[in-house]
Amino acid sequence: MGDPIIQVTDLCKSYGANTVLRSVNLEVRRQEVVVVIGPSGSGKSTLLRCLNLLEVPEQGDIRIEGRSLLDKGVRITEIRAEVGMVFQRFNLFPHMSVLDNITLSPVRVRKLPKEQAAVKAFELLRKVGLEDKANAAPDSLSGGQAQRVAIARALAMEPKIMLFDEPTSALDPEMVGEVLAVMKELAAEGMTMVVVTHEMGFAREVGDRVLFMERGSIVEEGTPQDVFDCPREERTRLFLSKVL
Amino acid sequence: MDFRFDIVWGYAPLLLKGTGLTVGISFVSIWLGAILGLGIGFGKMSRKSWISWPVSAYVNFFRGTPLIVQALIVHYIVIPPILGTTNAIVAGIVTLSLNSAAYTAEIYRAGIQSIDRGQREAAYSLGMTPGQAMRFVILPQAVKRMIPAFGNEFIVLVKDSAMLAYIAVPELMYWSNAMKGQYLKVVEAYTTAALVYFILTYSLSKLLQFVERRL
Questions:
Q1: Which of B119, B125, B136 to mutate to test the interface with A (most CBs of A within 10 A)?
Q2: What is the per-residue pLDDT across B126-183, written as a single tens digit (0 to 9) for each?
């Protein structure tokens, strides 16, 4: 496991009177897979969305490869281009084909020639098992297919980090497996990943480290064995007894 | 009561010229209003109050005062200092464009804000700037939803252009009034005008339906 690639210190975020993150500290190392679990409303999605500044924290610091996201001089678009994100509701662009979904940002942001971006896109579609869907409209895909396209779209930017925000929560149960399989493969290739999920099997099998969050704080963290088999905190035990 | 077709026939060349001007003025004003409205619409969505406040005042003024009053102000007060003389056609186009922009601005704003937040977030997460996200992701989807509302607005504009007869723009309504004035025949003058306006707006709505299906 490599050097720290994400460093979060003393992160605080609130919406009005509602505090969502209470002084969160987190370090993620290169090639590490960190899985964040916890009840809804615990702040895990907000934490994830702070990592590419879709949410702006009130206090604290976030560093990606040593660069603070909150420095005045930082071009946030450059950092976002290095950090892929997969959303619960896929968020594919419905007005363009699967192929164009994948090539849009490489062409417009990275200024890659169209043909080169298309070659790369086909490679990624093959990787997620959907090369026959290149010209399909996003609306014609099943949930599992759409999410795999969304993963391919994020990978097309060749990110150094992938963030997954409950990637299987909007899927029918029979489609969860195909998405998790792609994520497992990605982890095996050494991608640095932060995954917010309710899939405890995935957390145990793929996670290098598991964080349990509740009410805006990281209550407990450790290896999957530690957290799942002998949780130190009563709150973790309570949560796990409900979901396992 | 017998309908005097010969009067209408006699006025046909002038009515035709007037219809041409109605179509021309409407066409130009629709374009100018749609372009200006885009700027105004973005201005209304701005979080900077020195942008959003004047823009809101603009929209409120043009939605809150009668078009005929706006036309008279533009014709007698705004245009002469700029051109050195009155020009009814220019005043007409300026009035309709400014007025239409206030309405299209709202159409743009509503259309853009109707697009799911996740679309913008996905675009940002892929490294796009706000401008790129708007141009490649939000607007193409929003425009499709805006078309029915735009169709309404364009039809209203064509009908509203009849009001320009009051500042002596020689368009369709102007010549219909002239015909009524010369022969004192209201039925011939106004049913003819109504029929022509209906043909114009009906064709326009069919055209927009065609565009909507194509997209």
A1: B125
A2: 999 999 999 999 999 998 889 999 999 999 999 999 999 999 899 999 999 999 999 9
**CB B125 to CB A92 under 8 A?**
no
CATH fold for the domain made of B5-214: MetI-like fold (1.10.3720)
* CB contacts < 8 A (A, B): 64
Place of tokens 């039809």: B155
Phi/psi for A97 (5° steps) reads -65, 170
Cα dihedral sign, A166-A51-B132-A104: negative
Inter-residue contact A151 to A86 (CB < 8 Å): yes
Strand partners, A196: A36, A165
Q: How far, in Å, CA of B14 to CA of B175, rounded?
A: 7
What would the pLDDT profile of B109-121 be if each residue is shown by its tens digit?
999 999 999 999 9
Task: Give whole-number Cα distances, A87 to A4, A129, A195, A232, in Å.
Answer: 24, 19, 11, 31
> What is the value of ipTM here, to two decimals?
0.94
Please list the alpha-helical segments (H only) found in chain A.
Answer: 44-50, 76-82, 98-108, 114-127, 143-155, 173-188, 200-206, 224-229, 234-243
Name the minimum distance, in Å, from the CA of B37 to any CA of chain A: 24
Q: What whole-number distance in Å separates Cα of residue A189 and Cα of residue B84?
A: 74
CA-CA-CA-CA dihedral for A186, A189, A190, A191, to nearest 10 = -30
Amino acid of residue A175: M
pTM for this entry: 0.84
Domain boundaries, given as residue ranges, for chain B: 5-214
Determine which of B114, B126, B136, B143 to mutate to test the interface with A (most A C-beta atoms within 10 Å).
B126
- Per-residue tokens: B48: 């900077």
CA nearest to B121 within chain A? A54
Which uninterrupted H or E stretch holds A220? strand A217-222
Q: What's the gap in Å between the CA of A224 and the closest CA on chain B?
A: 29
The DSSP letter of residue A172 is: -
**Based on the number of CB atoms within 10 Å of its own CB, is A170 exposed (0-12), middle (13-18) or buried (19 or more)?**
middle
CA distance to partner chain A, nearest, from residue B215 (Å): 10
> What are the beta bridge partners of residue A222?
A210
The residues pairing with A67 across neighbouring beta strands, listed in sequence order, are A64
